[in-house]
Amino acid sequence: MKWKPRNLRALAEIVCGNAEHFHYRSSSYITEFFGDCDLDYVHDGSTRWARVSDKLEEILALPQRSPSVPPAPFVKVIRRVLDKGEAQEGDPDRSKALAALNIVLARKGWEAFYDEHGLGQLRHIATNTIAQIESPHRPLTPSELKRREQLLAYLDKCSEDELIEEVLLPLFRQLGFHRITAAGHKDKALEYGKDVWMKYTLPTLHVLYFGIQAKKGKLDSAGMGKTGSSNIGEILNQVTMMLGHQIFDPELNRRVLVDHAFIVAGGEITKQAKNWLGERLDATKRSQVMFMDRDDILNLFIVTNLPLPKGALPPRESEDLDEDLPF
Q1: Per its UniProt entry, which superkingdom is the organism in (predicted)?
Q2: 94 plus 164 within the same structural domain
Q3: What is the pLDDT of residues 269-295, one digit of tens each?
């Protein structure tokens, strides 16, 4: 992420507290600020904004997962700047500070906002991707565990279309995928073995295409799919179709092949099912297939702080959402 000097200086002035509505920091407190962000930094007594600007430029030069996902240390800096504990007189909710910060971030296509927990977040405006720094395998907080249980109950009762539209589509958008297109189940003849196709842009700006084959329940290798589960043999035919069929990319105005296939299950994908599928795919296709089961969906959905589907909320919360709608 290359920033112009004027933008770096504007953000540095915010970190230093030289900008209105932001906490003023002397040299020692600037050192403490970056320490809170888990970054090595000791202020050397030089001009504060210039030294901070150099540090921010160093952070922004770090590798990033995709053009729409900034380096994790930069996200930590933005969250620290928006700490609600540093509210200034005349700006108790930090709305003025947020507006001032967004003037700078918008020049690079970003927008900061406060989430439902009052934590500063960073959103890529073009793709609506929210930058995340947490691992999906970290321990969850009590409030996250509660949300996880609500989502778990929703996965037990939702339909396959609801799994795709209410859970998977928001999740993959949040993870940085774009041009996400759902085939749906109204016209099975047009699916060609995939429920969703999407694109992911690498840091090198090369583009990979992904297809998703989603099943609501458990995937196993039994001779016949049991109630609430699907047989992996069904998936083999659909994955073969997915990898062999071209999709039309309207942005490029040409047809392309799917590079990788996600097999996603709202339940468990048994080890036997994965092994069975691997044995029947050749080496090339085997490397193209990835699995996501219920635990993967739950952890990723909660850690990325996505709002729960309406059907997963308690009745009172669902009613409150209806009251907030402007129509």
Answers
A1: Bacteria
A2: no
A3: 888 888 888 788 777 677 888 889 999
User: Has residue 323 been placed in a domain?
Assistant: no
DSSP 179-246: EEEE--SS-GGGTTT-SEEEEEE-TTS-EEEEEEEEESSEEE--SSPPTTEEEHHHHHHHHHHHHHSE
DSSP 292: E
Are 114 and 153 found together in one domain? no
Residue 110 structural domain: 5-130
Q: Under a CB-based contact definition with an 8 Å cutoff, are residues 252 and 304 in contact?
A: no
Strands 110-114 and 246-249: unpaired
Cβ-based neighbour number of residue 24 at 10 Å: 11
Considering the domain boundaries, does residue 199 fall inside one?
Answer: yes
Chain centroid to CA 177: 8
- Residue 150, pLDDT above cutoff 90: yes
The domain boundary, picked from 110, 130, 150, lies at 130
Q: What is the CATH number of the domain that holds 263?
A: 3.40.91
Whether residues 76 and 148 fall in one domain: no
* pLDDT tens-place string over residues 1-28: 689 999 999 999 999 999 999 999 999 9
